[in-house]
Amino acid sequence: MQRAVVLGGSFAGLMAARVLSDYAEDVVIVEPDCLDDASRTGAPHRRQLHALLAMGHTQLERWFPGITKEMTTQGALVGRGEAVQFYVDGHRRLPLEEVEMLGATRPFIERAVRLRTRGLPNVRIIAGRGQGLLIQGKCVRGVRYIPNGQQTETTTLTADFVVDAMGRSSRLSAWLEQEGWPVPPLDRMTIDLGYATASFRRGSELPGTVIAHSAPGPASDYQPTLCEPGALAAVEDSRWTVVLAGYAGHRPSRDPQEFRSRMRRCVQPLREVAEQCELESDVETFHFRESRRRRFLAASRLPGGLAAVGDAVASINPIYGQGLTLAALQASALAAYLRSGAAAHEPAWGYFQRADVFVNAGWNLSTTADLAQPHVIGPYPRGYALMRWVGDKITQASLQDAEINRAYMSVVHMQQHPRALARPRVLMRAARVLLAR
Ligand SMILES: Cc1cc2nc3c(=O)[nH]c(=O)nc-3n(C[C@H](O)[C@H](O)[C@H](O)COP(=O)(O)OP(=O)(O)OC[C@H]3O[C@@H](n4cnc5c(N)ncnc54)[C@H](O)[C@@H]3O)c2cc1C
């Protein structure tokens, strides 16, 4: 390809640009926000704690070899085994040596990815806001955008391939409709989730801990009665980033005192930070109203030369920490599609089919789990009651048995498809563990 354009220069856009740099002479990222500004407005959720799942970390290293080393040299941490602690209903899972997680803030990770992407000789970033697609005949031929500093006058940028990485508020569907193309159906699930994140000074407390994550499970019927849901990460600049989450009437506020007292009702690592560490930031809140997924494969037609990545495809309940990993996996799916010899001007069905495997897995996993909340009213998938029952039993068994825990966590970390948990061997073992108890 001569030129590929990526609309949106956040995490998913940068990953896509990295992949496209292997296939296009010129890769242009169009992004309205000043990306180097820590308080940029384009993606306010970036200030919340972001955990990168083990598969996301693997993918990051795949596309940017040595990036972990670069980040740890600058203060990020890497944890595995005892350093990564997952709790369910206050009960700690067995540690896993093979699960490696990064302790760093989202702006820090994104900056490392941006520096590496921008350093590629054929990638450049233009400050501007995408305004529409240029479609000729059956395929996309470029984009229209307003350069920063101008009010309304649009500029045209021709391209052989365009990627939508404009996040969950992407206007791509509206643009397609304007041009007379069908709109990909949008799935939605209202979850009314509240997030609150704050930073604490990190000292000698909790030696060796990088990540601690606490979630309610079957013993509390997924309610915060036994333990507050929350997480902490040891991050750059000798800080702990702590997040608390709650649904509907239990959404956390910006009040620092409330934040600390909720931390005291959480698992031991969060309690210890609440007791011992100095708060170093305001409490930042974020209201995540609904999960959304655009089903591109269900559109009857798509113009050639167009793909979408990241939250522009699916923006899922952040509690499961899947967003960055899905974006990284989509970059790999894009690479596999382009490597397969597909012509840039054809509809990118092959890309969407590949990406659909894990986007569906992430969506199904999170929406099925969210239906355990009484205020979440659907839509219910077929066979939900059985899925929930089996899911609860496997979760219970995974808290007692090392092998099931390993299989379970490999699904949580997106290293395996959720169907790995439906294998007869896993089901039989779970039944044996629970019956023995
Ligand atoms: C509260 C919260 C906590 C989260 N925690 C985690 C976590 O722990 N782990 C995890 O993996 N994921 C987490 N996520 C999900 C993760 O943040 C997203 O999946 C991720 O930001 C997706 O990246 P993106 O590049 O697709 O979109 P975004 O990061 O939203 O970026 C979209 C970009 O598009 C730009 N843009 C918008 N309009 C235009 C336009 N017209 N033209 C050009 N550019 C445009 C914006 O300026 C922005 O830079 C969390 C999300 C939330 C809301």
UniProtKB/TrEMBL annotation:
- Which InterPro entries is this protein grouped with? FAD-bd (IPR002938), FAD/NAD-bd_sf (IPR036188)
Carries keyword Electron transport? no
The protein's UniProt keywords, in alphabetical order, are: Plasmid
FAD-binding domain segment(s): 4-338
Which Pfam families has this protein been placed in?
Answer: FAD_binding_3
Q: Name one GO molecular function term.
A: FAD binding
Tell me the protein's name.
Answer: FAD-binding domain-containing protein
Give the originating organism.
Streptomyces sp. F12
